[in-house]
Automatic annotation (TrEMBL), chain B:
Binds a copper A center. It is a multi-pass membrane protein. Its EC number is 7.1.1.9. The keyword Cell membrane does not apply. It is an enzyme of class 7 (translocase). Keywords: Copper, Electron transport, Membrane, Metal-binding, Respiratory chain, Signal, Translocase, Transmembrane, Transmembrane helix, Transport. The chain crosses the membrane at residues 50-70, 91-109, 136-159, 179-199. GO terms for molecular function: copper ion binding; cytochrome-c oxidase activity. This is Cytochrome c oxidase subunit 2.
Length: 626, 408
């Protein structure tokens, strides 16, 4: 019954486009519409985020109460939590899968996948992606990757448990840890599918942005979101294949007896036949992707927050060009800093020195971005929408986490901080929390565009404040554990006398994490409830300049009925003096805003400047409207 | 609307099924052995789980009531013709101001309380340089951290929305941007230079032939460490992983004369103020040799040697005095995920005076025992000096010391 109803609605909407009929399956499942694919990415991403968050609560419980039994864990986990206590190898599996899901499935696919798909065509003025079919395929590869990854919870030896970086030999030898059996194979298969998905997505994003911009949308008129997605996609295209290469070699080592990563290994007294490989090779290949990956995670979040902060401060983003150049700087530099993950791995120390230099240089564009955000807020007229709250939260996390990066990027300091809780605290702030906040800012901001409904703002405030506070409560104290030399990925802190003083801190952190998790209920309820019962969104709820808000609220295939609008100006004309409203959409030509045009707007076009001068002579300014 | 029905009916059913399947399969798909596990009385457990769920639901209900009350309040204000109820911009901006104040206090509290629970000052020469640089970096970053947060939350508080005001149109200023590109770049240059020089001083040491560092070999495996001292010749001998057997767990090659006097030790004992050269390697997976009191960490990698040289400056006794903790001990442990026992892979370290060290060393046993002598076709009884040196020796001095060690 429902299919028919949808069907009718659809035909009614798009009769003039002459598209073939859509069924439930072609509209909601194998959709090739970028807006639907964006929603698919988002909802899959949210589900994966909830799962990964649940895993983190499980291991936080273990860390807080290492000697208590929680029989309900056995109900869910069976022999992995015999007697209600998580086993130490399963603890490592939890940590591994939490990391993998969060980094790849939530913050890469869930973030880039959602917002690149939604915003690229809408903000540059295209009817859809360059290749809608590839786009659909990209989602389904991602979905399969998720399914395969989760399936490893249903096998006897359990999921991969060598950490999300899966360093061999640990990940290559099932005798070293049970998770390196079938679970690791599934991890590798899942990752290959995920990379395929990312590549298809990335190629699509780049070609759409380069080829399908609407009339007037030159590169320097693109919103910063698009710049961020564009550079992120380039990063992904150039770095993800290297991971596949690494993964294939690892598959060979595991299944076909080669020795790319293995050499001179004795398990107990069993001498393995592998000779001539090097475990360090994996680390080079992994981090050649792995480091750009953290920028793949954070750059879309930075792009989103640039847009959200500018819109809600009612001010142009400060230093648009500097923002773009710093994104480009981060993109280029991120390819030559991977070695800072390997300072103490036994890599030639000479390289350590070089990587330290490049790593600390990358802090400069990051600092520029932060200062530009602050300058944008300065003398703004700030509307605290939930999206804006999350964007401000992102800036805060980006600062806090970024500054601890200066410690870790310094090879000498890294000696004592490497693989401790200091690292955990650092990256959870700068790429975990900051990127999640960017994603949430994006969801709150573009929800009206995605679902045609408004989310409840008050629940959004509640969600923000609980999450913001508890994220700091979780991660700030962890720095100090690291400074005391407590290594990460420890199943329990009970075996070391000096770690016992941190047990109370662990209990506190776990409660804060539980609070953070419960706060997400406010979001989930708001999100799913508003899809059905939310207030219907107006055309341009945030009074924003960008192109997506000129498209009708009801989704239609092709985005705009009739012609695609033409773009005349940059996207950040907020509160321009001389104009009556505090925003001027990109589609408004300068001829309609004679009273607010500035000489700079014409980019040296002598004829236009002449017209403007004539107009100003004819209409002398009577009073300042400011 | 029909979509809604579709989703509510069928999806809830599907979700319920999925959840049950998840709970069941994950519990049942595992070993039958799990079934034999002792039964726990689940009554209490379910009660406590239900209790927490009820508490949570009560909180949700409370929030929902507050939400409704707010809505009613705002609607009634609207109906009375007064301008809309609560000014949420003001609420949020004030919360940011509050967060700034409480946050700054929280940071202060963390720095003083948790900050006093950290590792004691470095007990090695290079560790002091690392500590100095850490402190410098900490000061710089703390200043930036606090200043930027005051600006961020301060601006959020001051420039909250007002319908009467318009924001200041200020798209760019190249001078300011140049300043805040160049200043961080300069500060970072200083840090990079210091870091680079310290790094070089740690990893590129010129060896003084008269003061050769004490060699200690550490081998890691799941989940323990083995320590090998070089014996009288001052050099740890060759290893070959292919020689590993139950009695020769490290795969020491005893046909190398330098190996024969190598000593095994249960703990690492090192003389104070003498350079120590750690030769690290691993039997199975990657581990990380982490000795935080000396600011030493380096991964142990199968198939290759990694080397870290450091000089301890404080004895254990001194540290016990300094930290006011009679139980204080140095230790090293694993910092790279290596398997189920990763969380408990440690060894004690004792830093002692030169004299105590010599005494301790004299008591340690060699790796070479009678069993291994047989395996390597070496005479079981202490042999006369000549017979061994005939076959393989090149350096007669080394052989002599070697034989002395064997005779012990």
């Amino acid at each position: 019954m429902s299919t028919i109803a949808l069907h009718d609605e659809h035909n009614h909407d798009h009769a003039d486009h002459g598209h073939h009929k859509e069924t439930l399956i072609s509209k909601y499942i194998f959709s090739m519409d970028h807006k639907m694919i964006a929603k698919q990415f988002l909802i899959t991403g949210i589900i994966m985020a909830v799962i990964a968050m649940g895993l983190s609560i499980l291991f936080r419980i273990q860390l807080a109460w290492p000697d208590k039994n929680f029989p309900f864990l056995e109900t869910f986990l069976g022999k992995w939590a015999e007697g209600g206590r998580i086993k130490s190898d399963f603890y490592l599996a939890l940590v591994t899968i939490h990391g993998t899901i969060m980094v790849f499935f939530v913050l890469t696919a869930g973030l880039s996948g959602t917002f690149s798909n939604l915003l690229i065509p809408l903000q540059i003025g295209a009817r859809d992606m360059a290749s809608p079919f590839l786009n659909m395929l990209s989602y389904w590869f991602f979905f399969m990757a998720c399914v395969v990854m989760m399936s490893s919870f249903f096998i006897q030896t359990g999921p991969a448990s060598g950490g999300w970086t899966v360093y061999p030999p640990l990940s290559a030898l099932p005798t070293a840890i049970p998770g390196s059996g079938l679970g690791m194979t599934l991890w590798l298969i899942s990752m290959v599918m995920f990379v395929a998905s990312s590549l298809m997505g990335g190629i699509n994003y780049v070609s759409t942005i380069l080829n399908m911009r609407t009339k007037g949308m030159d590169l320097w008129k693109m919103p910063l979101t698009i710049w961020a997605f564009f550079l992120t996609a380039i990063l992904g295209i150039l770095s993800f294949p290297v991971l596949v290469a690494g993964v294939v070699l690892l598959v060979f080592d595991r299944s076909f007896g080669t020795s790319f990563y293995l050499s001179d290994i004795v398990m107990g007294t069993t001498i393995l036949p592998n000779e001539g490989g090097s475990p360090i090779l994996w680390q080079h290949l992994f981090w050649f992707l792995g480091h750009p990956e953290v920028y793949i995670v954070i750059m879309p979040a930075l792009g989103i927050s640039s847009e959200v902060i500018s819109v809600n401060s009612r001010k142009p983003i400060f230093g648009y060009h500097a923002m773009v150049y710093s994104l480009i700087g981060i993109t280029v530099l991120s390819f030559i800093v991977w070695g800072h993950h390997m300072f103490v791995t036994g890599m030639n120390p000479l390289l350590g020195g070089v990587f330290m230099i490049t790593t600390l240089i990358i802090a400069v564009p990051s600092a520029v971005k932060t200062f530009n955000y602050l300058a944008t807020l300065w003398r703004g007229n700030i509307r605290f929408t939930p999206a804006m709250l999350f964007a401000i939260g992102l800036v805060s996390f980006f600062i806090s986490g970024g500054l601890t990066g200066i410690f870790l990027g310094n090879a000498s300091l890294d000696i004592n901080l490497h693989d401790t809780y200091f690292v955990v605290a650092h990256f959870h702030l700068v790429m975990g929390s900051a990127a999640i906040f960017g994603m949430l800012a994006g969801v709150y901001h573009w929800y009206p565009k995605m679902f045609g409904k408004m989310m409840n703002a008050k629940l959004g405030y509640l969600h923000f404040w609980l999450t913001f506070i508890s994220a700091y409560l979780v991660f700030f104290p962890l720095h100090f554990l690291g400074l005391d030399g407590v290594p990460r990925r420890y199943y329990a802190f009970t075996e070391f006398e000096f770690m016992k003083k941190w047990l109370t801190v662990n209990i506190f952190v776990t409660w804060a994490a539980i609070l953070a998790a419960l706060a997400q209920v406010a979001f989930l309820f708001n999100f799913f409830y508003s899809i059905f019962k939310g207030k219907v969104a107006p055309q341009n709820p945030w009074e924003s300049n960008t192109l997506e808000w000129t498209a009708p609220v009801e989704h239609l295939h092709g985005n705009w009925p009739g012609e695609i609008p033409t773009v005349y100006r940059w996207p950040y004309d907020y509160s321009k003096p001389g104009h009556d409203a505090d925003f001027i959409p990109q589609t408004v030509p300068f001829s309609q805003t004679m009273s607010s045009n500035l000489p700079h707007d014409f980019e040296g076009n002598a004829e236009a400047e002449k017209i403007q001068q004539d107009w100003e002579l004819a209409n002398p300014v009577v009073e300042n409207k400011g | 609307m029909s979509l809604r029905k579709f989703i509510t009916n069928k999806t809830t059913a599907a979700l319920a099924v999925l959840l049950t399947v998840f709970a069941n399969t994950s519990a049942f798909a595992q070993d039958a052995a799990a079934a034999a596990a002792p039964k726990v009385d689940m009554g209490e457990v379910y009660k406590s789980v239900i209790f927490y769920i009820l508490v949570f639901l009560a909180v949700c209900l409370f929030i929902a009531i507050v939400g409704k009350a707010l809505k009613v309040y705002e609607l009634s204000r609207e109906a009375q013709g007064k301008d809309g109820g609560i000014n949420w911009n003001r609420v949020n901006s004030s919360l940011f101001a509050l967060f700034l104040v409480l946050g700054l206090y929280g940071v202060y509290w963390e720095y003083t309380v948790h900050g006093s629970m950290l590792l004691p000052d470095a007990a090695s020469i290079h560790g002091k340089r690392i500590d100095d640089m850490f402190n410098l970096t900490l000061i710089i970053t703390t200043i930036v951290f606090i200043a930027t947060h005051i600006l961020l939350f301060g601006f959020s508080y001051i420039y909250k929305y007002s319908a009467k005001r318009k924001a200041y149109y200020y798209p760019h200023n190249n001078t300011i941007e140049k300043i805040w590109t160049i200043v961080p770049a300069l500060v970072l240059t200083v840090l990079v230079l210091m870091g680079f020089l310290t790094w070089r001083s740690i990893f590129f040491k010129v060896e003084d032939p008269n003061h050769k560092p004490l060699q200690i070999e550490v081998t890691s495996e799941q989940f323990k460490w083995s320590i090998r001292y070089p014996g009288a010749d001052g050099v740890v001998g060759h290893k070959n992983y292919k020689l590993t057997t139950a009695s020769n767990t490290l795969g020491i090659d005893f046909s190398d004369l330098k190996s024969r006097d190598d000593l095994m030790a249960d703990e690492m004992v090192i003389p104070v103020n003498k350079p120590v050269k750690l030769i690290l390697n691993s039997k199975d997976v990657i581990h990380s040799f982490y000795m935080p009191h000396f600011r030493v960490q380096l991964n142990t990698v199968p198939g290759m040697q990694t080397i870290f040289e450091f000089t301890p400056t404080k004895t254990t006794a001194q540290m016990q005095e300094e930290t006011n903790d009679p139980n204080f001990k140095f230790l090293f442990y694993c910092a790279k995920i290596c398997g189920a026992g990763h969380y408990n892979m440690q060894k004690d370290v004792r830093v002692v005076s030169e004299k105590e060290y010599e005494e301790w060393l004299a008591k340690q046993k060699t790796y070479l025992n009678d069993d291994l002598r047989k395996q390597f076709n070496l005479p079981v009884a202490p042999a006369p000096v000549k017979s061994v040196s005939d076959s393989t020796a090149k350096d007669s001095a080394a052989v002599k010391t070697n034989q002395m060690a064997l005779n012990k």
